[in-house]
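Sample intake sheet
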Amino acid sequence: HPYFSYKDLLGFFILTLLLSLLVLFSPNLLGDTENFIPADPLLTPPHIKPEWYFLFAYAILRSIPNKLGGVLALLFSILILMLVPLLHTSKQRSAT
């Protein structure tokens, strides 16, 4: 039992030492080079690809030039999606 505890502590200290050396002496070694590209606020960088489930939001926000109008349109579209199940008034039930 004590041998396993000493082994675990030694492994923990060695890994902590290696991680500390990596972080302190070469912090950009594992970094992404695209983080150093100067930002252009008028252009979305080409390496940023929207996820498929956010495409409706991107389409709404980019189609309306006014920021407040785009945000309101996005909120109303989400509100409509939330209200659709409440509008189901059919009395028919499934068999299972």
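Comment: The chain has three helices and no strands. The first helix runs from residue 2 to 25.
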